[in-house]
């Protein structure tokens, strides 16, 4: 290929920018598209076109790349109009309707501003699909805006970033409209039908600062994460509430039930008040399992630092016991050793005992799946990355929108539960006909 003036630095810059995305994230080019591109721009022709052009003449506003994109878009719109009218340009028209010139438009895209002319028809019945009427941004740019927003960037930061990266000026009002349009997706997601049976559902909460009645409050946002029969992690919903209790959890569980959930085999919680009573009313056969990690943290919060390692070590035989009877014996042994100094520990474990021991009745292959809520806490960490830059949210709607985007963004990186085939076989043996064939 003929050398481009300033070509080496330009190529280096491209390599640096592209290096930010992994190969797995880059969209694959269909072979038929590559073949058509080769026919349109053979290598020798491309060499001649690029000869003597600098980087700005290739990728800058009004450069070769944006002009080429404009030509491609115009050709596609022209093909759409031809299909709509039923006759080729220059041929006799097939009906009363006919071509009626074009309208100039400037599109904001990931490669900068692209100027096109949108074809019109006489009776204004043509509805283009590639670039719709009144559309001024290609879908790829909207996706990038949402991706940056889900990553925790503010509208001001996004506007600055797009200008610096693409040379495209997108106003903050426009960015707000793009992110605001997600609300319909959020509503559909929160009301979508769910699976009939979930082997495991994790429930947990996180605190989010939300402005309400001119006062910033630390609101509790509750999330639910289910494991499907195929071993996929599926976020089930987002709920807000002021005060935790059985009434609130009754509403959450009824929402899941109305959306199609007929049975939950095991519900993993972190000691949420009122949850066992609520779940018994809606899903009477569900096993409620308290997160062992939360139980340890909660019961040892008043232990001095010098004793903490020894106390947690002596608690381990309780939750690793073969069965509930052995676990109770280990708890008595622990109380004899530490009860005089820390009586509150054994007292709390006895109080929560009913919901501490259920997982001990399960096979070893299932215990690692249900003994902790770390699965949903990993999702919480992804959400916190997005909201940590926000001092507070103006309302629950905007907070829900960002949390939804953060979840859907993180969901693309999730993998199936490890060793799920063996775990599902154990579920089938233990729960029998509650697991559908």
CA-based gyration radius: 29 Å
Number of domains: 2
**Could you tell me the mean pLDDT?**
78
Q: Class by helix and strand content?
A: alpha/beta
How many strand segments? 7
Terminal residue distance: 61 Å
Beta-strand level of the residues, as a percent range?
Answer: 15-25%
Which stretches are poorly predicted, pLDDT < 50 over at least 5 residues?
1-26
Shape, please? elongated
In DSSP terms (H or I, runs of 4 or more residues), the helix count works out at 20
Topology pattern, helix = H, strand = E: HHHHHEEHHHHEEEHEHEHHHHHHHHH
The helix content is: 40-55%
Biggest sheet details: 5 strands, mixed
What order do the strands of the largest sheet run in, or round the barrel if closed? 5-4-3-6-7
Polypeptide structure, described:
The chain has helices at 7-18, 31-40, 43-50, 55-59, 64-85, 139-150, 155-166, 172-180, 183-190, 246-258, 275-282, 292-299, 305-319, 324-338, 343-351, 353-356, 364-370, 374-387, 396-411, 420-431, and strands at residues 99-109, 112-121, 197-212, 215-227, 233-241, 263-269, 287-290. It is of the alpha/beta class. It folds into 2 domains: 7-180, no CATH class; 196-430, no CATH class. The strands form 2 sheets. The protein has a 5-stranded mixed β-sheet, with helices on both faces. α10 (246-258) runs parallel beside α11, α13 runs antiparallel to α14 and α18 (374-387) crosses α19. The radius of gyration is 29 Å and the shape is elongated. Mean pLDDT is 78; it is low at 1-26.
């Amino acid at each position: 290929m003929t050398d481009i003036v300033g070509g080496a630095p330009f190529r280096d810059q491209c390599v640096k920018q592209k290096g930010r995305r992994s190969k797995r994230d880059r969209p694959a080019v269909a072979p038929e598209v590559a073949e058509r591109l080769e026919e349109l721009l053979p290598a020798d022709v491309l060499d001649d076109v690029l000869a003597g052009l600098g980087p700005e003449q290739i990728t800058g506003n009004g450069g070769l790349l944006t002009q080429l994109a404009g030509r491609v878009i115009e050709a596609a719109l022209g093909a759409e109009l031809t299909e709509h009218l039923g006759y080729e340009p220059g041929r006799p028209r097939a009906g009363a309707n006919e071509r009626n010139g074009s309208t100039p438009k400037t599109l904001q895209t990931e490669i900068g501003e692209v100027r096109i002319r949108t074809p019109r028809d006489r009776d204004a019945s043509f509805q283009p699909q590639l670039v719709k009427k009144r559309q001024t941004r290609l879908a790829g740019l909207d996706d990038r805006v949402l991706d940056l927003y889900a990553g925790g960037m503010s509208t001001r930061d996004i506007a600055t970033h797009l200008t610096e990266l693409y040379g495209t000026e997108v106003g903050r009002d426009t960015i707000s409209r793009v992110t605001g349009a997600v609300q319909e997706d959020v509503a559909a997601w929160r009301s979508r039908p769910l699976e009939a049976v979930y082997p495991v559902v994790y429930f947990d909460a996180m605190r989010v600062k939300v402005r309400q009645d001119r006062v910033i409050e630390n609101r509790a946002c509750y999330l639910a994460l289910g494991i499907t029969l195929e071993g996929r992690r599926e976020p089930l919903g987002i709920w807000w509430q002021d005060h935790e209790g059985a009434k609130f959890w009754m509403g959450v569980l009824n929402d899941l039930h109305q959306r199609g959930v007929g049975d939950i085999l095991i519900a993993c919680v972190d000691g949420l008040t009122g949850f066992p009573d609520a779940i018994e009313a809606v899903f009477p056969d569900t096993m409620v399992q308290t997160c062992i990690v939360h139980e340890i943290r909660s019961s040892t919060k008043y232990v001095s630092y010098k004793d903490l390692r020894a106390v947690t070590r002596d608690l381990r035989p309780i939750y690793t016991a073969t069965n509930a009877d052995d676990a109770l014996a280990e708890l008595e042994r622990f109380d004899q050793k530490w009860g005089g100094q820390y009586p509150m520990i054994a007292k709390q474990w006895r109080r929560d005992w009913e919901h501490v021991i259920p997982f001990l009745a399960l096979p070893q292959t299932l215990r690692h799946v249900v003994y902790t809520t770390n699965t949903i806490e990993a999702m919480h960490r992804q959400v916190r990355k997005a909201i940590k830059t926000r001092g507070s949210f103006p309302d629950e709607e905007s907070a829900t929108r960002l949390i939804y985007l953060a979840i859907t963004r993180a969901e693309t990186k999730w993998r199936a539960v490890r060793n799920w085939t063996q775990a599902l076989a154990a579920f089938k043996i233990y729960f029998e006909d509650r697991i559908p064939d």
